[in-house]
Amino acid sequence: MKAVTLLICGLLLFTSCKGQQETTVSKLPPLEFSRKIQGTPDVQLLDVRTAQEFESQHLDRAVNVDINGGNFENKAASLDKSKPVFVYCMVGGRSGKAAEKLAAMGFLEVYDLEGGIMKWNAEGYGTPAKGGMSLADYEKLVTSDQKVLISFFAEWCGPCKKMAPYMTALEKDSTDNIKVVRVDADINKALAQQLKVQVLPTLLLFKDGKQTWQHTGFIAEADLKKALE
C-alpha cells in the first residue's frame, strides 16, 4: 500500500513539473537582436533607461520603463508573459537587471541586447547621431606633439562617477606634457559612433598622433597615472 502511495505521489510530482515552463533569458548581439525584434509582430520592447536618455535616442517601437524608476514591476505586469519581451539600456548593466526581474516575474522568453545601445550604434544599427565634436576636430586634437588622453564618459555611468574627481582634476591640470580631454558620450554621440566606442568609460592615449594605450572600464587613479608616465 505504501509503495502504491509513493508511486502515485511520484507521478503527480512528475506531471506537475512537466507542466511548468522554464524561463529562457538570452543575451543577443545587435545583429541577432535586430532580426529577432523585426520578426516579432506586436513586439514587447522595453527601454529600461531614464526618460531623458529615452528622449535622446531609442529603438523603434520601444516603450520606456525605467528599471530604477520605482514602479518597474507594476508597469511590466501589464505585458503578456507568454510572449517574448526584449530589453535594452545604454551598455547592458541595467537591462541585465531588468531581464532578471522579468524572469522572476514569470516571463517565458526574455531577450537582452548585448552591449546596449552603445554597441547597437557602434555596429551601425542606430540612426546617425548629430552634434558634438566632429571627427575632423577630434583628429586634429589627438594629432599633437604632446601626449593627449581622451576620456569618453557619461553622467549616468557608475564607474565614470567614481573616476570623475581625479579625471576632472587631471583635465583641469593639463600641462605641456599631457593634455586630458573628457568627452561626454551623450553629447558626442556621433563621434562615439564613428570611433565605435562600446564601453564607458573608454580612455585613449595618443602620442605624436598615434594611439599608444587604451583602457575600458574603471581604473584607479594610481594605475592611470602610472599608465600616463
Care to describe what's here?
By secondary structure, the chain is an alpha/beta fold. The chain is built from ten helices and nine strands. A five-stranded parallel β-sheet has the order 1-5-4-2-3. Strands 7-6-8-9 form a four-stranded mixed β-sheet, covered by helices on one side. Strand 6, helix 8 (158-172) and strand 7 form a beta-alpha-beta unit. The chain is elongated. The N and C termini lie far apart (81 Å). Residues 2-19 have low confidence and may be disordered.
Summarize the structure.
The protein is about 40% helix and about 20% strand. The protein has about 230 residues and is an alpha/beta fold.
Question: Tell me, what is the CATH class of the largest domain?
Answer: Alpha Beta
Oligomer: single chain
What would you say the CATH architecture of the largest domain is? 3-Layer(aba) Sandwich
Sequence stretches where pLDDT stays below 50 over 5 or more residues: 2-19
Number of domains: 2
* Intertermini distance: 81 Å
The CATH homology group name of the largest domain: Rhodanese-like domain
Mean pLDDT: 88
If strands are numbered along the chain, what order do they take across the biggest sheet? 1-5-4-2-3
Overall shape: elongated
CATH topology of the largest domain: Oxidized Rhodanese, domain 1
The whole-angstrom Rg is 23 Å
Portion of residues within helices? 40-55%
Strand tally = 9
Proportion of residues in β-strands: 15-25%
Structural class: alpha/beta
Question: Describe the biggest sheet?
Answer: 5 strands, parallel
Along the chain, the helix and strand elements come as: HEHEHEHEHEHHEHEHEEH
